[in-house]
């Protein structure tokens, strides 16, 4: 059973809302982990969960993750997320998305949504017809468009910071980087790496995705899968496919000195982080380096400006270096250092909201 009220203060969620509209078939859960830094911001996942319990467990976990990601991205946003239960290919419709929009609106701005797995910018345009609290809309509708642009840029900044830490220079020129998954984020990362003079090795289960990269960069090497990539002669491993890429087996054989990629929840289990540290592999925490996307959509709230959003995402370089510094000083793995830094910001900056502003 999922414990909405949590077993430790870190797991307590401020608000969890179940929403249903029978005619359109909407069944959604909106979870707000905390609003210490401002309105909760996080995407809407449209997914055919096996059960209500599975959907609830996912949304609680994702909302908490967003609180930490937003805090370290320097945003004035708390963490939230929503899930719509169903198959987006067959169940997504205008009435369903608009019904969902009305529930978001009913929260009065405590939760601001965006795209996630199964939802796209044109969907957000529809949701926005019923709610003011929507980001990730299309550019034609004043939105930030495809968030993978700044996600890949942010991952690249995190990788440069990791290179600075390991090699003493942020340049990836001449380094061999393995990119697992060359979808929306991965293929843009390959562009940035090639521009910087890195050698690139890729793998993907989709031949179409591979072909697209090979068309742009014919000299990119292709390997069968992550296992083959791990044992190949790479300096950096960038998981950009699904979560759980860093399994015991991959870490045991990994030749890279750095792991830095876009995928969420890269560690297959919490023990993997120690294994990475024991093998002398520097791990750039996923939620720190992949925050460019949320930085991009958050900018929409001010009236989207790509230059401003890009310069905010560029700070991922400094944040990543700072986390490595804290990890070394305090003798903890980088992911633990990142959590500490996020919690510090939530508590120190969140606290000032208690200052009475007068009438
Ligand atoms: N798009 C964003 O702005 C964003 C932001 C933050 C985090 N992320 C995370 O980054 C990752 C990539 O996101 P995306 O938007 O590029 O998704 P995507 O679906 O466009 O790309 C994923 C790619 O991985 C490939 N893939 C799937 N399973 C694979 C496997 N076992 N081995 C190799 N390749 C495999 C797919 O074929 C696809 O090409 C995801 O984990 C996502 O949650 C994305």
TrEMBL record:
Its EC number is 1.4.1.23. Keywords: NAD, Nucleotide-binding, Oxidoreductase. It comes from the Bacteria. Gene3D superfamilies: Leucine Dehydrogenase, chain A, domain 1, NAD(P)-binding Rossmann-like Domain. One of its GO terms (molecular function) is nucleotide binding. The active site is at residue 81. NAD(+) binds at residues 181-186. SMART domains: ELFV_dehydrog. One of its GO terms (biological process) is amino acid metabolic process. InterPro entries: Aminoacid_DH-like_N_sf, Glu/Leu/Phe/Val/Trp_DH, Glu/Leu/Phe/Val/Trp_DH_C, Glu/Leu/Phe/Val/Trp_DH_dimer, Glu/Leu/Phe/Val_DH_AS, Glu/Phe/Leu/Val/Trp_DH_bac/arc, NAD(P)-bd_dom_sf. Residues 145-354 form the Glutamate/phenylalanine/leucine/valine/L-tryptophan dehydrogenase C-terminal domain. Belongs to the Glu/Leu/Phe/Val dehydrogenases family. This is Valine dehydrogenase (NAD+). The lineage of its organism: Bacteria, Bacillati, Actinomycetota, Actinomycetes, Streptosporangiales.
